[in-house]
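User: I'm putting together a teaching handout on how multi-component assemblies are represented. Below are the sequence lines for each component of a complex, exactly as they appear in our records. Could you produce the 3D structure of the whole assembly as structure tokens, so the students can see both representations side by side? Please keep the chain order the same as the input.
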Amino acid sequence: MSALEISNLSLAIGGAPILNGVSFAAEPGKITALVGESGSGKSLTLLSAMQLLPPGARLSGSVKLAGEEIAGAGETRLNALRGAAMGMVFQEPMSALNPVRTIGAQIAETVLLHRQVSRAEAQTQARAALDRVGLSAIGLERYPHELSGGQRQRVAIAIATVLAPALVLADEPTTALDVITQAGVLALFRDLADAGGAVVLVTHDLSIVANYADRVAIMGGGAIVDEAEGAGALRRLTHPYAKALLAAATPKPASAPARELGAEVLRVENAVVVHAREGGGAVRALDGVSMAVRAGESVGVVGESGSGKSTLARVALGLQRLTSGAVKLDGRDWASARGAALKAMRLRAQIVFQDPYGSFNPRRRVGWLVAEPLHLMEPTLSEEARRARVSRVLEDVGLSPTDAARYPHQFSGGQRQRIAIARALVTEPALVVLDEAVSALDVSIRAQILDLLAELRGRLGLSYLFITHDLAVVRAIADRVIVLQAGKIVEEGAARTMFDAPSHPYTAALAAASPRLDLASES
Amino acid sequence: MNRALILGAALSGAAILAALVSLAWTPYDIAAIDVARAFSAPSAAHWLGTDHLGRDVVSLLLAGARTSIAVALVAVGIGIGIGAPLGLLAAARGGLIDEIIMRANDMVFAFPALLLAILLTAVLGPSGVNAMIAIGVFNVPVFARVARGGALALWRREYVLAARAAGKGGFRISVEHVLPNLADQLIVQATIQFSLGVIAEAGLSYVGLGVQPPDASWGRMLSESQTFVFLAPWLALAPGLAIFATVLGLNLMGDGLRDALDPKQRADR
Amino acid sequence: MIRYLAGRALALMLTLVAASLVVFAIIDIAPGDPAAYMMGLNADPAAVAALRTELGLDGSLAQRYVDWAGGLLRGDLGVSYTYRVPVSELVAERAALSIPLAAIALVLSSSLALGAALLAVSKRGRPTETTVMALSQAGVATPNFWIALLLVLVFSTTLGWFSAGGFPGWDAGPVALFRSLALPALALALPQAAVLTRVMRSALLDTLNEDYMRTARAKGLSQWAALTRHALPNAMIPVLTILGLQFSFLLAGAVIIENVFYLPGLGRLVFQAIVQRDLIVVRSVVMLLVFAAVAIAFLVDLLYAAADPRLRRPA
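Assistant: Of course. Below is the structure of the complete assembly, with chains in the same order as your input.
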């Protein structure tokens, strides 16, 4: 008997149809991956299984938990099942726990809700649950804010699994986590399945599916379009949408024609950045970093959170003052530049951010936003010249000049990222810093943007400093890659080959933890 | 457009209309005292009757609207005009300037507002202008705090970082990026402070420290009616209801505006 | 956390000093010659001069400020010009009424508001919520002196259940006390309750959107249990500041209410002193009220630290 069986599930929220006849099952002892792009309805499918839908939701169809029909069941029955027969883990570990209660109390609460035991007994079970998720060194009396994101996610898993429910639902549980932490958390789900539980894992990351899932179901347009099982499942998908997803997710190595690299555009010499920490002490965001980017080169910077990669991005643009060391653009030091010289330098280095939704002032039109860096130019451009440039860069990124009159919210995430790239190109820079510029995009859009970036580099002779945590992206876009750990460079090498034969143990750990789609689908 | 906004706009619009009309005309002259006609009940000639000095209540209400709106409006103007730039400055500069502005805010907040307004008007002399100043002073830290809070959140947004990458300075960024996105919160707060100003002006006039006769004020009408509450209870109802309706209207408008302007309610994503 | 509290204590003390300078400026400098101001326009010049000497107004401004501030720190609030008794005695007498009254009003308004807010939030989107919010809108729009007037009109004049004013003293027995304090407390509490309801509801709604509420439901907690066990403790934290502000407001803002009900409280004391131009009383009592507000603010900071573990042990 399936642990979870969903048949013909249809969901509309406030009149808008979201799910359209979804049917699938989750078996005990297996990890079933539910894959789809944003908007496919995969999160809502899980929430429908838990019957935790937002107000205004109308659900029809059948949801059976271990054979019992729960669609339309009463709240009392559902409350009894939630936490005991089915548990759920959500995407954002940073906010999933109540900040004013200890983690022990929050885990024990699940126990006390469903079992008639004493407080002390509940605490013992909470302790055991924490040990099972690998947090034996963390005390029950700790508060959530004292733990890292990965640790908080483990606590959330402990809460969801302390009573060993037969079904565990996980909605993008590792999206917000570093690669190495992600591997640890996914291993926990593997353990749960091996112990006999049924795990449903929602994700958009096909490499996770290739390395961890026993079954995969692809969602598109509110329904399941394809399913496959067993080793090499991904390659056995036949539906065109599924195949398109797989093609987009498979990394293509960076096109690296024998290009004559020019003079150095960016040089970082022994950069040290020290921040004062709240409550005393100091943290070295950058600890003696030296590197260079030559004209026409694409350099990737890889690291986990806290590695200093964002600080490096800001330092390269002269937005962050150094505690010691020097950063030079075209041979000129940022620290000593003033007035007109500083403006001229800013023209040569621009940035593309990660968040396509937050990087634009919602009240300004696209034309104004793209033209914003142009105020640095001396002498200032005429209105006509400005408009001409804006039109040109919009076309460069695959949009139309008429888009200049529209507002950011009228575009999709991928289109907004194109606008961000256009803004970075409008001053005809030499160096473009991209800070996790594709991390927030869907897989198929990501592929398109990476292609665009590669094409622009070749045509316009740009240099890139590409900050990312995703090794697959680095392989696709960079010639050379630098690995940062705790503010120091631990290894440098050719992007395509370094991770296959790493020298430094940290690089090796990163490589091992990163799920690879191309290798796995060959099994 | 939601219902709150419409109802609120209607009520406060009526008050503002009354104030504007009274600038040009009132049914009767509010300075005209006619003791013979004192305490007459509502009739065709005097729709709401007359007060203890024979003055027409409707005319007094219209003139009172003028006082309430004018005082509250100027007080809000003082608050936004001084408070908002201070808040923006504190958020843009941070450090010592921020500390100084925040401490000054705390200090004003520590004063019991009504009491100090009473004190200021008593010492400076009771008048409409001094009431505007006394109430306005307490609006400044409110707007400073709202502006600073909103600005701090906006400074962390990536598009501000992009503007810095484009080389813009704090002043330009505050004006071009922060202020327009702050306008919503400031407007909503302005309606709140406006309604508080109406109540404060009524309170000051109630104790005799607001505008002086022959200018009319709803608060003074209330305090005068208190003495004669057994004789003519309706005299206590009219100004009270006027205050109630105006403040209610302003609050509803503030709520309606907040909901209408809330980006989470807008279907954009 | 010690650092945090010490920092706050220092900031609050600076606030007090700054406030005392402002009060001094308003009372001692603004009216021109305080002695002349106190005695009025037609006073005999010799009497004014005598008063000036008595009040120490012949000294420099700095000297006068130091004398006054020093006196405050020692507990010497001066001698009332009108009543010829030490201000500290007057204050103690009046505070014995005002503080309990403010406390009663605070408890009343907070409980009403909490109940109303919880009700409105748990019945979201249904008529109960609309009614509660409409009532709170009406409450906010009503000046407390008008409510006082209406209450007197209905309960005292017409029904005769409560006295229309005056205070019989704390030893008059519970029934008499109730009859004289019920209406004033209600007049103070109702508009405050309306304001607090809106604040608490807003805070609760904000917490409802937090992710940990979802986790709570996924554990099997009912909507109500999740609300009271997880949302409420978090929502109360921002409400603490408002409560602190309310108490100081109740203490001083009761001026008008005390007037309406002829209650011999602090507000009435200051108001009469202002009218009688007894600047000595005004100066000291205003400073006292400011001190109370600052002390309460510090208390709220302490409560914050107790309630929010993120402040007790920074990560």
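A couple of points students might notice: The radius of gyration of chain B is 22 Å. Residues 33 and 53 of chain B are 6 Å apart (CA to CA).
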